[in-house]
User: What shape does this take?
Amino acid sequence: MLALRQAAAQRYDALLNSIPGLELPPLTLPNRIISWFVYVLRLPEQVDRDRVQASLARHGIATGRYFAPIHLQPAWRSHSSAGAATLPITESIARRTLALPFFNRIDSGQQEEVVAALRGAIEA
Assistant: This one.
């Protein structure tokens, strides 16, 4: 399972490298094995993630907003110190994260379809 997921991550990396401004996850980490339970990238600052996500959905491609800052969660927002929490870098990263379709048996054709649709949505 890990080998299949590693291969899928490597395929995404190769396909996505040509899209300017994307921040891709590292394929390796020193002294670690990545489990690749999800593939999350960051869109460029000027790209509206929600618009991209809606465009991909119109192509039948499900994605996810992966990173939700704790200080913006409903449970935290009710805390008395919540109003003081301003984390602009965290919030910027959260607005730009997008989890792509990722599963053990995703094939290169499916990944090429995802990347083509993503490229089109970013460039629109």
Notes: Residues 8 and 107 are 8 Å apart (CA to CA). The longest helix spans residues 108-123. The longest strand covers residues 39-42. The chain has five helices and two strands.
